[in-house]
């Protein structure tokens, strides 16, 4: 029996894209058909966002062709993609922060105009939010800038799946779950499965390979601007994917066995009527719980409490690794080098003047250590892929002498190979006496911590240590406010 394959919604053939000396796509051919969820994986800088920009019409390849529903598309761009029902949720969230959720909906759905547009736009977005994230609790009159990063991500995702006349046919999700906790992620993946089962198509990009394995019907692996492997989803294992990406397969990361810690905590904080937080010298302390329940606020408060001096200190007491990098991490207009060295200028300066050689040397060391992929550290920060920008923020903080490192879900968008390297660096630094306070939306990371505080509604509701740090206990505490017996 011959199986008739439906026509591809979009097909890119032999696409080549270069940014100056960097070859982002070296001849990529990819077709997406109705009813399939294509998982796209690869190391940071492999070219995933670039091929997505080509499919989304945001970037015209220097070579190659694009066709849609079997017809060659000559002048393909964002508007042409939108008319074909192709939408993209970007890694860097793209909503206008000064407008409300409803007003942002109006911008995406241009046809929702005229008298009464607010009511209709509200209906469009609320219907979609309810469908993708039942019980979301987001009021559509709120200004986007006031939403937490997880809420913003939920609105972006719901916006992409919303329908106001032009039905969504292909939704591209570029690391959509990087700020979502486990339950929101599950809601979104369940919706993706339903959307695909009803004939829609999805491209799912994620560094959390488990998500891809349980959702994608086909998985495509990219490496250095090329597709290096492509198979049905159920023909892959996590191990096989990591190998195909060119990363070294390491055993599962385990919590370290703790040596004796000093008795006196170096960090102490209180959350309302909740339990107090304590972190000792050399300890890795995790902050867990559902996203947006006060973990980031706690980190901000700890940071403010130790840095409120008028003068910058030669020996900073704390350093902060931002997770919401566009909001409080990256200096857009600066080079990679300047973004890296800004926190250690005191160490790099001689009589008040920065020693450029020492600065370049230290940046080079970190470039090698966590594999920041750029041909030249003086390139603009925004020329880096998202995951590589995140690595720079890591390097910036770890290169300081601050004894306490506060981390706000810092692995957003970092690839699996690099994550393992960073976990190892954290262990080594903790062994040398540094204290880490680490908020993460990834259970695997929380379970690496020596001690974990679970947050609920702004307060710490449970403290788990050693062998009690398990997924089951954390989930029980997150939902019920108490650890499982
Ligand atoms: N505007 C740009 N200017 C210069 N170089 C760029 C630009 N956009 C992307 N690049 C480069 O192209 C390459 C591919 O980047 P891309 O963002 O597609 O990677 P990615 O696979 O999505 O990575 P990540 O997993 O970190 O998001 C990288 O080396 C990146 O530095």
UniProtKB/TrEMBL annotation:
Entry keyword annotation includes Iron-sulfur: no
SUPFAM superfamilies, sorted: P-loop containing nucleoside triphosphate hydrolases
Molecular function terms from GO: ATP binding; ATP hydrolysis activity
Coiled-coil regions listed: none
Q: Name one Pfam family in it.
A: ABC_tran
Query: What protein family does this chain belong to?
Result: Belongs to the ABC transporter superfamily.
Q: What is this protein called?
A: ABC transporter ATP-binding protein
